[in-house]
């Protein structure tokens, strides 16, 4: 097929039955068109070039597999087969399949407008996709390509009906996967085992989990920028598989049950996912509970993340005063223990990083680990907490044992307030109290074992006060919104590889973004880039300033002031001020 010209032309009659309305899309082995039948009904026609098809796309009898699958399916959430046939044009042998035309838009088109969907709408769409998939699985058909591009919303009636529309990668379960042609599949939607050409019903379940995640968050799970790896597909696959070793990130708007359903669908091992689409549906409908763990694995081994020597603090824009403080009080103390001991200064046991969300606490901790050269263990409360009795305590012990064996080590715990909440709070459970007690016991003078703890939180007033006393988290570091110099360097960093006008005034941009946090600066650069792309112009000062005016800081001035009050109390407590011999965060 030509890459520039379609095979059929407008008004051309196909098989004396269909008139071409217009060309839609060209693929590697097929073209698609909108056509009209003899009754003037609009249909969708897919035209196959036999010479472009891979041998695995044929049945044993020589028919095109996709057409044979389409002829067997019939369900309200699946595209509907209408007709098929063979034709010859310019000595080219071609086949076609005609489907009922779906009047509407793909989920990808919908999400370009809305970015994310609410929980109710996303759940209903996923249920519809699962119902269609259940029909396929009952016929022993694996779809293999559930994505937001291949689910269309039929808007012809009063209610939008999701339909699975493309079956180019569908296969019968009994078919061998050995020579399966997987080029062109969206890697963010494909299960781990499919990278090795192992496809099953559980692979489809993973794809639906990935779709569910994207509907709610706006990006596929474990997303990486693929443009960096276009020339090396194997490297891209390795990078994606490495990303999948990390915990999934969810917004606060997604309830825990929904998060657990998605996590189960996206389990790396197929046997740990939903056993069937029916079980997935029943769990979504509340008929079954979500089981993420199995009893034999209740004491899960924490998988740490090791970061090797990198750029360290040189990768952080600005904030020199803060970096100098940490260099003197923490890094030099850890690297030169004997010298500090001569002056009667103790080795710090741990450090709390606190401040508004979006100020880069996690990034700062990683760069600090690179600066020191210690092994780095990045942990979230979800890596530790368990529904099994005593399992959380066991996981905490395992974590410290692992870090001790690989000392010197830094253990970085994000969202520390969720792991060690204040035990005086009335709504804390007995299991959480036991976990806090275990964590406190493990932390006692852990610096002597070569372990340094870094905790990060947006809610320091929700942490148990005992964690902040001497011998545990000795240093309390407030991470404020970036200063002027940091904001200026951030704008330079985020915009330097984008098409900007010559002489972009970074100082003016920095002055206009006082009290904006680090994540806000990144968002502003992205939004300005989208506007410039839409207008097909370079990113100008005017565009960035207009974007700043239209987007307020994510953290209000009132919230920033409340952090300053907390900071003053933290400093008094750290200095053993008699007014705060126990840290009381009063409003």
SSE topology sketch:
Layout: E1 13-14, E2 18-26, E3 30-36, E4 42-49, H1 65-72, E5 81-89, E6 92-100, E7 104-106, H2 107-114, H3 119-138, E8 141-142, E9 151-154, E10 161-164, E11 171-172, H4 201-217, H5 233-243, H6 256-265, H7 277-284, H8 320-335, H9 337-342, E12 350-354, H10 361-372, E13 375-379, H11 381-384, H12 391-405, E14 409-413, H13 416-419, H14 430-443, E15 451-457, E16 475-478, H15 484-495, H16 506-511, H17 518-535, H18 541-549, H19 557-574
Parallel strand pairs: 12-15, 12-16, 13-14, 14-15
Antiparallel strand pairs: 1-2, 2-3, 3-4, 4-6, 5-6, 7-9, 8-11, 9-10
Describe the structure concisely for a colleague:
By secondary structure, the chain is an alpha/beta fold. 37% of the residues lie in helices and 14% in strands.
Structure notes:
- The chain is α/β, with parallel strands linked by helices and 587 residues long.
- 37% of the residues lie in helices and 14% in strands.
- It is built from 19 helices and 16 strands.
- It has helices spanning 65-72, 107-114, 119-138, 201-217, 233-243, 256-265, 277-284, 320-335, 337-342, 361-372, 381-384, 391-405, 416-419, 430-443, 484-495, 506-511, 518-535, 541-549, 557-574, and strands spanning 13-14, 18-26, 30-36, 42-49, 81-89, 92-100, 104-106, 141-142, 151-154, 161-164, 171-172, 350-354, 375-379, 409-413, 451-457, 475-478.
- The strands form four sheets. Strands 1-2-3-4-6-5 form a six-stranded antiparallel beta sheet, covered by helices on one side.
- Strand 1 and strand 2 (18-26) form a beta hairpin.
- Helix 4 packs antiparallel against helix 6 (256-265), helix 15 (484-495) packs parallel to helix 17 and helix 17 packs across helix 18.
- The longest helix has 20 residues, at 119-138.
- It is elongated, with a radius of gyration of 29 Å.
- The termini are far apart.
- Mean pLDDT is 83; it is low at 294-304 and 577-587.
């Amino acid at each position: 097929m030509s890459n520039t010209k379609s095979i059929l032309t407008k008004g051309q009659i196909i098989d004396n039955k269909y008139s071409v309305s217009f060309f839609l899309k060209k693929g590697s082995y097929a073209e698609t068109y909108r056509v009209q039948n003899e009754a003037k009904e609009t249909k969708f026609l897919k035209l196959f070039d036999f010479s472009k098809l891979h041998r695995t796309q044929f049945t044993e009898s020589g028919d095109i597999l996709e057409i044979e699958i389409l002829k067997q399916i019939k369900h309200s959430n699946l595209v509907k087969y209408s007709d098929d046939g063979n034709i010859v044009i310019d000595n080219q042998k071609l086949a076609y399949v005609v489907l009922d035309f779906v009047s509407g838009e793909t989920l990808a088109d919908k999400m370009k407008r809305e970015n994310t969907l609410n929980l109710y709408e996303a759940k209903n769409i996923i249920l519809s996709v699962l119902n269609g998939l259940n029909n396929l699985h009952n016929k022993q058909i694996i779809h293999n390509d559930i994505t937001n591009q291949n689910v269309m919303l039929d808007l012809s009636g009063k209610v939008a009906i999701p339909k699975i529309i493309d079956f180019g990668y569908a296969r019968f379960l009994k078919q061998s996967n050995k020579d399966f042609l997987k080029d062109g599949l969206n890697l963010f939607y494909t299960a781990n085992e499919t990278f090795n050409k192992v496809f099953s019903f559980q692979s489809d379940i993973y794809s639906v989990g990935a779709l569910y995640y994207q509907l709610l968050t706006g990006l596929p799970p474990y997303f990486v920028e693929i443009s960096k790896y276009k020339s090396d597909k194997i490297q891209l696959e390795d990078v994606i598989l490495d990303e999948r070793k990390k915990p999934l990130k969810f917004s606060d708007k997604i309830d825990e049950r929904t998060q657990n359903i998605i996590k189960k669908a996206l389990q790396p091992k197929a046997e740990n996912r939903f056993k069937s689409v029916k079980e997935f549906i029943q769990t979504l409908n509340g008929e079954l509970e979500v089981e993420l763990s199995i009893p034999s694995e209740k004491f899960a081994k924490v998988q740490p993340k090791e970061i090797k020597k990198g750029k360290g603090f040189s990768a952080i824009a600005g904030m020199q005063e803060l970096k100098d403080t940490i260099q003197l009080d923490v890094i030099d103390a850890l690297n030169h223990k004997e010298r500090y001991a001569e002056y009667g200064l103790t080795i710090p046991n741990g450090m709390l990083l606190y401040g508004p969300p979006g100020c880069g606490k996690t990034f700062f901790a990683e760069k600090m680990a690179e600066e020191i050269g210690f092994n780095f263990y990045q942990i979230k409360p979800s890596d530790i907490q368990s529904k099994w009795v005593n399992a959380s305590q066991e996981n905490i012990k395992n974590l410290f044992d692992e870090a001790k064996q690989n000392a010197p080590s830094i253990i970085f715990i994000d969202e520390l307030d969720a792991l060690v909440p204040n035990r005086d709070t009335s709504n804390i459970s007995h299991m959480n109290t036991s976990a806090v007690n275990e964590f406190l016991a493990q932390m006692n003078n852990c610096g002597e074992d070569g372990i340094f703890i870094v905790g990060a939180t947006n809610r320091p007033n929700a942490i148990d006060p005992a964690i902040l006393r001497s011998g545990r988290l000795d240093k309390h570091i407030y991470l404020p919104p970036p200063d002027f110099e940091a904001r200026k360097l951030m704008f330079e960093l985020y915009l330097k590889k984008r098409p900007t006008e010559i002489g972009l005034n970074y100082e003016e941009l920095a002055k206009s973004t006082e009290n904006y946090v680090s994540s806000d600066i990144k968002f502003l650069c992205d939004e300005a880039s989208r506007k410039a792309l839409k207008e097909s112009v370079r990113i100008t000062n005017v565009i960035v300033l207009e974007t700043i005016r239209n987007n307020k800081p994510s953290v209000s001035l009132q919230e920033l002031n409340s952090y300053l009050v907390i900071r003053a109390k933290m400093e008094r407590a750290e200095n053993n001020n008699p007014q705060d011999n126990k840290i009381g965060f009063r409003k």
